[in-house]
């Protein structure tokens, strides 16, 4: 499925009108357009959904940290600019489970990273469909856990992480009830009865899948399957039974003493009945994770020589933490506030070689010919690490001002 054209629908889905605004967005999509001719396009450019979402959230101060795609599965992580230098050790992984593991129409995509010293692992999955696929879904869960390994990280397996957030079309259905009985219970708001027949809850209770994962209260009606453009449950000849296919779960690891402060609270868990361009109703949750922000410092600090103007070269000095590995492909980018990802710089210069060994800092110069002439916008400098594939430090915002005219 391609992105819809109505901007207001995206606003509803991303909850951009919320106050306070979230610090981070984690967005998982399933069954996006995965036609063969799209693969070449998406290997060069962002897929249409990622581009669409970044275009909406970039002007609101969010930067894409990472994205990963496996056929119709997309996982996207964006955060406020201020947090970017404190998101480190970013890695991705994926697992195919379709057709015995040979095809990616089903499976999982994963992004893991460190957030102010806490390890976070995000999984977006699309598991085996149909009522009778219950046992296979449980096996898919185990396959994903056993298959994904982060070799260069201290937390090398999914469940080793401090925080694990698992979302997607888990495809678990409601068992032992007829479709009309399920619809009646929904109509009567007897969701507590439906929950006792929910395959995911039953698998958790039996220890077959998602052991020790938590979930918000299911106070919203099942999100599958509806007629596209409506909230009416499947009226086709198949009359599929409504189910809570779309879920968001989490797990917090507190076994060690240094992890005792870790905690997740959920403020909201709901479906979006106004978003009707699929046969699933989207689900979202507001989660609050505890991290120790005061203990972290950026790996790169900037000291910009003020003021900058469009007719003179701009200079800055930066320092690199001595334990940070730099590379000859690192660069310093000049970014206009509202940029969407690290590649979207106005101009750049190469970083000083072996900057971590220079105690008095590194000095770089931006030639005036390449500086923007826009004197109303605000900019920042960012140090991009080719090894970390992320921005390690960001300057304070500044403007590029017209030079003052000398008095005669």
Can you walk me through this structure?
With about 400 residues, the chain is α+β, with helices and mostly antiparallel strands. It has helices spanning about 5-15, 35-45, 50-55, 135-145, 180-185, 190-195, 200-205, and strands spanning about 25-30, 60-70, 75-80, 85-100, 105-115, 120-125, 165-170, 215, 245-250, 265-270, 285-290, 300-305, 315-320, 330-335, 345-350, 360-365, 380-385, 390-395, 400. The strands form five sheets. The chain has a six-stranded mixed β-sheet, with helices on one face. Strands 14, 15, 17, 18 and 19 form a five-stranded antiparallel β-sheet that branches. A three-stranded antiparallel β-sheet has the order 1-3-2, covered by helices on one side. The longest helix is centred in the middle third of the chain and has 14 residues, at about 135-145. The protein is elongated, with a radius of gyration of 24 Å.
- Taken from the alpha-carbon principal axes, the silhouette is elongated
User: What is the percent of helical residues?
Assistant: 10-25%
Uncertain spans, ≥5 residues at pLDDT below 50?
none
What percent of residues are in strands?
A: 25-35%
> What is the radius of gyration computed over CA atoms, rounded to a whole number of angstroms?
24 Å
User: Taking all residues together, what is the mean pLDDT?
Assistant: 91
Biggest sheet layout = 6 strands, mixed
β-strand number: 19
C-alpha termini separation: 65 Å
Alpha-beta content class: alpha+beta
Strand order of the largest sheet: 4-5-6-7-9-8
In sequence order, what are the helices and strands, one letter per element? Answer: HEHHEEEEEHEHHHEEEEEEEEEEEE
* Number of helices in the DSSP assignment: 7
């Amino acid at each position: 499925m391609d992105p819809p054209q109505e901007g207001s629908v995206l606003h509803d889905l991303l909850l951009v009108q919320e106050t306070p605004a979230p610090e981070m967005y984690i967005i998982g999509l399933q069954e996006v357009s995965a036609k063969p001719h799209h693969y070449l396009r998406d290997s060069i450019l962002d897929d249409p959904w990622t581009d669409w979402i970044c275009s909406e959230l970039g002007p609101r101060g969010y930067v894409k940290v990472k994205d990963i795609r496996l056929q119709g599965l997309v996982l996207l992580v964006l955060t406020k600019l201020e947090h970017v230098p404190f998101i480190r050790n970013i890695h991705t992984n994926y697992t195919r489970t379709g057709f015995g593991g040979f095809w990616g129409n089903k499976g999982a995509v994963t992004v893991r990273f460190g957030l102010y010293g806490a390890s976070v692992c995000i999984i977006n999955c699309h598991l085996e469909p149909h009522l009778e696929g219950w046992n296979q879904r449980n096996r898919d869960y185990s396959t994903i856990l056993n298959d994904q390994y982060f070799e260069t990280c201290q937390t090398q397996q999914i469940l080793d992480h401090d925080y694990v957030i698992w979302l997607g079309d888990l495809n678990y259905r409601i068992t032992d009830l007829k479709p009309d009985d399920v619809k009646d219970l929904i109509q009567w708001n007897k969701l507590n009865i439906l929950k006792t027949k929910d395959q995911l809850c039953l698998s958790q209770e039996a220890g077959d899948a998602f052991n020790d994962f938590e979930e918000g209260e299911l106070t919203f009606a099942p999100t599958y399957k509806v007629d596209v453009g409506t909230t009416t449950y499947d009226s086709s000849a198949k009359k599929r039974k409504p189910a809570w296919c779309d879920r968001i779960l989490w797990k917090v690891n507190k076994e060690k003493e240094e992890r005792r402060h870790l905690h997740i609270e959920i403020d909201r868990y709901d479906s979006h009945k106004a978003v009707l361009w699929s046969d699933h109703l989207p689900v979202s949750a507001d989660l609050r994770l505890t991290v120790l922000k005061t203990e972290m410092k950026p790996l790169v600090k900037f000291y910009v020589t003020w003021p900058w103007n469009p007719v003179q070269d701009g200079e800055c000095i930066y320092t690199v933490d001595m334990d940070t590995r730099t590379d000859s492909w690192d660069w310093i980018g000049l970014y206009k506030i509202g940029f969407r990802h690290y590649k979207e710089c106005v101009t750049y210069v190469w970083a000083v070689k072996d900057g971590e060994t220079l105690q008095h800092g590194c000095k770089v110069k931006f030639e005036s010919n390449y500086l923007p002439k826009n004197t109303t916008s605000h900019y920042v400098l960012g140090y991009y690490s080719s090894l970390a594939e992320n921005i390690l430090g960001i300057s304070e915002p500044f403007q590029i001002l017209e030079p003052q005219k000398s008095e005669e």
